[in-house]
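Incident log, structure service

09:12 report received: a user says their structure output differs between two submissions of the same chain.
09:20 pulled the input from the user's history:
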Amino acid sequence: MTATPRGALRMPAEWAAHRATWIAWPHHEPDWPGKLGPIPWVYGEIARVIADHEPLEILCHNTAVLDAARRILEAHAVRLDRVRLHVVPTDRVWLRDSAPVGVHDATGALVWANWAFNAWAKYPNWQLDAEVGNVIAGITGLRRETPLRHDTGTPIVLEGGGIEVNGEGLLLVTEEWLLSAVQVRNPGLTREDYERIFADWLGIRQTIWLGEGCVGDDTHGHIDDVARFVSPDTIVLAVERDPADENHRRSIDNLNRLEAAARRSSTAPLRIVELPFPRPVMMNGERLPASYANFYIANGVVLVPTFNDSQDRIALNTLAGLMPDRRVVGIHAVDLVWGLGTLHCLTQQEPAPRPA
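09:34 re-ran on a clean worker, output below:
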């Protein structure tokens, strides 16, 4: 553990080469109340697409979950030569947030930045998920570093869904996630403190602060439902044009902030491309965080959540035009988002080593 990283570290962009993708097999029924049944089959389709393009590492809560996962993977004709199943107890499956973040050191070797995890400062059961970083480091045999606060020496709480990088020193984040008085991850840390953390551990030279995340996001402001890099100088932003929709105010504020940041950019101009939101997805009177921005970029492919909505095609075509070197595959996510997350939330990439 250390407050200052050993050597220069930089987080690569999601489109950089992966060694593998990590997911955890669904098992926690309260995450999908009354709807857990179909979720493993959605995971089977996700696994099929990813394993066609890169190795897939799957954490299974126990041997019964592992056996069930294997049956579904076989039923979906998943490339099992690219899949490894591991018995690892977890509280939930959202590895974007509980798993460590892969960064490169000065030699190009991969290091796991193992943030502390406390279930988004919201849920009482997180102790198993807090060990996921140790487990993944052990399975991979890679160096693990636990970032510590400079003031107290205690571990820094961060989640991968809250940070978005272009691999060249820019980072997107929201004030709602880290600077509001709701679901506080690191009491006492300021905007400047976080920017120092991002510089030390992710190689960030400029942090762009957006305002709020999308309606229904129980993480309270994760960036991966609203704004994503698709190239070093191109950002897709989820924008709601209907003034009657609560996402309209939030997204227009974020658009204004991004446009101002683009004007101030000291390097190449930033290009902002709008993604639509789908119609509101409701369940038992609750609006869910349905967003096309929660896509996942793997080697040669982009997995995009779809919602049986007329905007699905617009979102898929927009992303296909921005990433023409990758297949763009829609994954039906109406049931999945009842768990308050979709494709980016459930995946975590393991970057490949970078040539020195």
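09:41 both user submissions now match this output. Likely a transient worker issue. Closing.
09:42 reviewer note: Residues 246-264 form the longest helix (19 residues). The radius of gyration is 19 Å.
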